[in-house]
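Hello Y.,

Per our agreement to keep a running log of every chain we model this quarter, I'm adding this entry. I've kept the format consistent with earlier entries: sequence first, then predicted structure.
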Amino acid sequence: MIRRNDKVNVLSTVDYNRVRNFIMENARALDVRVFAYLFENGSQKEAAEELAKFQNEDGGFGHGIEPDIRMPDSSPIATTVGLQYARKLKLTGGHRIVRKALEYLNSEYDESITGWHLLGKEVNDHPHAPWWSYDHEKGHCGVHGTWANPNAEITGYLHEYEGYVPNELIEKVTQKAREELGTLPEEMEMHDFLCYKRLMESVQSPFKEEIEEKLKKAVRKITKLNPGDWEGYGMKPLQAADSPASPFFPLLKDEVKENLHYEMEKLREAGYASPNWSWFGKYEEEWVHAEKDWQGHLTVELLKTLKEFGCLDD
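Predicted structure for the entry above:
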């Protein structure tokens, strides 16, 4: 475990307050409430109320909760983001937000692929990142890849809230997740890794250990280990091992420590975290808003990670 006597820097109170002010003045109300819940004994109920504003009547999430997808319509990929927030807020399966989201996923399940499609053609009617554009000839969006994204992650939520999901559905997608895990190369795509990582955090043994074993073989091969690569898009050490308790931390300890220094220096300099991607000149006016949404979200996420590693001043 990294501790302060391992000479990891600590974010000063002055720097922390500067970052806090950025969140309060610039982040979405949802991320402000999540920050308050995580760091200031804020209300879970108030944070959940903000989360519910991104949920549609059908139970799915939209309305830009995934800032690169601005459409109001529900989609499975946006619903995974909504459930990531629900997990952070420790909402139970009986909570209306979670229950509705599970009902949506149950209704969107496609037996022919034993899973869910990322999103539909409606995305083209609204501002979005270029990689989310729907290709009518191929019948899917540009980032469509393996089954893992988003299906492995969704399978994890079905296990986490298993009392609110049909057992038959859980059994089918879990078997599919096992099969797909075996087909993934060790140099898997980063989002496949992250989706299986989220599944691993919810599933029980022995499948949990099967996933962990596969991801451990992959982690050093697909993580950007060189600080010179961290400005570009790719998985950084802190994404793979986001706490000292992570099973991937022992495999990346030196790189995690260096990544902590790197992220804190950038945070001290700017006062917030920023995405290391853009929309490449498309929907430029809307990207200004999406980028700010990302900045608020990523800043809260970074502070959460720094707290896990003991890098915030008491």
